[in-house]
Amino acid sequence: MELFADLLLIAIGAALVNNFVLTYFVGLCPFLGVSRRLDTAFGMGCAVTFVISVAALLSWTMTEFVLRPGAPLPNWVWSSLNPAAEAGAVDLSVLSYIVYIFVIASSVQLVEMYVRKFFPPLYKSFGVFLPLITTNCAILFACLEIMKHVVARDWGLAESLTLAIFGGVGFTIAIVLMAGIREELELCEVPESLRGAAITMIVAGILALAFMGFSGIGANVEKLLNP
Amino acid sequence: MTLLVVLLASFTLLLLAVFMSVVLGWANRAFYVEVDPRVQQIDIVLPGANCAGCGYIGCTDYAEAVVHDGASVALCAPGGESCAEAVAEIMGVEVEETWPYRAVVHCGATLPQRLGVNDYRGERTCAAANLVAGYQGCVYGCLGLGDCVEACTFDAMKMIWGLVQIDYEKCTGCGACVETCPRRIISRIPFKAERVLVVSCSNEDFGNDVRKVCKVGCIGCGACAKLSDLFTMDANLPTLDYETDRVEEGDFEKSMEKCPMESLLFVGKPSAEDLAATIDEELPSRVEPKFETTVDKAEWWG
């Protein structure tokens, strides 16, 4: 039950309260780039959610067993080579960034091939933005967040995956909202100097302000679950 | 210790790389998509400017449309004829002949021929004048304030006697004027010959009402349609189907003769006879610009 409550809190936190896009301002390039049409935006949200989940799974595994200070694998190798050494001395966390980027890039490649094979129209509408998920900071952000908690030893695989999946869901919510608004904007008479990127930025800012309204929810849900 | 950490780190990355290579290598086989080699060939032949002038998102998209959807091979404007031929060769088809499209005006009334023209003191644009009632009697025809002349980037339009005339030596058929005209009396039609027959009226009212507002407007008598089946009467106006090849054959001489309002006109480049007829006329060698009309768009109020 406690685990469930924790997961619920993490889920709500990732999807709404600390929405990746609208609170942390990560993953802004696809948020602004692919939010022109509703169906493409939804597809992008799904792709990011998928990539973020795969990357979180892989990066949690890497962090837990290889990268964190005192991780079992390198220390086992170290101690078997040098029996006199103290336990848990090897720290490979310097590798974290390069490993995460590597893992993310590979999973994006995988998703790209998969989408190209089974959803050609989606592949076409993504265009250059699908490979750009590689450098989507939302995904690296999720990996780093997971690393922070794994190093502090308070998150297991379940929590990490929850953060990743609901972070992706939060991204999808944000980008779909944005796409809906931008589709309506096509029909509006925007002052000439604000057309294009400017009005998009303004809309994004107002959306971010609106999402500040969720900030009370996290604390209240916590109170409700742990009275 | 340091050396060992370095070794461990390199070993970790190496393992990861091998693992990912295996997974991606497998995926590459499993999710292999066959691409038509002709798409790639056409993609190479196309200019690669991604201008979207053909109506597709980019050159690759157009190449795919040519191969899969049977799009025309001659849509690439920057590539021109040579590009179309190369694409046609890859596709194993002939380049079909495309007709140049040109703008034509469906109004033939100059200012003195229009009736019920009132003194208009508003902004001197068609868009503004079209909003107010009573600018002139005819609510279909040319307003003569030259929005299309402004819109034309090829300097192919000019106002003569309050009626727009198109210079077919300069017109490229871009359609800017078609979009601009608030009364929608300009249209793009295929020029299958140097000179093309045009119904030079847009008034859809009955003959009696047309006579009240215009001296030359089509009264919808239908004489042309009776004499030649090229014309079909629609809303008191004859329409010509330019898509049929028979427009070139020219069995509409009788219709032209019989038209009581002489609303059927040939437009296009001047014929040899026209040039011969005007060759003796003295044309001013130099046209002096008039300050009132050429300094800027603003009307000279004196």
Structure, described:
Chain A has 227 residues and is mainly α. Chain A is 73% helix and 0% strand. Chain A contains eleven helices and no strands. The two termini of chain A are 14 Å apart. In chain B, helix 2 crosses helix 3 (59-68) and helix 2 (37-45) runs antiparallel to helix 4 (80-91). Chain B is of the alpha+beta class and 302 residues long. Chain B is elongated. The model of chain B has no long low-confidence stretch (mean pLDDT 78). Chain B contains twelve helices and eight strands. The interface between A and B is medium-sized, with 27 and 18 residues.
Relevant terms:
heterodimer; A: 227 residues; mainly alpha; B: 302 residues; 3-methyladenine DNA Glycosylase II, Chain A, domain 3; two-stranded antiparallel ribbon; 8 strands; 34% helix
Largest interface: A-B, 27 and 18 residues
Assess the beta-strand content of chain B as a share of residues: 5-15%
Q: Secondary-structure element sequence of chain B?
A: HHHHEHHEEHEEHHEEHEHH
Taken in chain order, the helices and strands of chain A follow as: HHHHHHHHHHH
For the biggest sheet of chain B, the summary is: 2 strands, antiparallel
Main sheet attributes: strand count, strand direction, barrel closure of chain A: none
- Average residue-wise pLDDT of chain A: 86
- The total beta strand count of chain A reads 0
Distance between the termini of chain A: 14 Å
- The general outline of chain B is elongated
CATH architecture of the largest domain in chain B: 2-Layer Sandwich
Decide which structural class fits the backbone of chain A: mainly alpha
What is the top-level CATH class of the largest domain in chain B? Alpha Beta
- Could you tell me the radius of gyration of chain A in angstroms? 20 Å
Note poorly predicted spans of chain B. none
Strand content of the residues of chain A, in percent?
under 5%
* Total number of helices of chain A: 11
Helix content percent band of chain B: 25-40%
Q: Which regions of chain A contain 5 or more consecutive residues with pLDDT less than 50?
A: none
Helix content estimate of chain A? over 70%
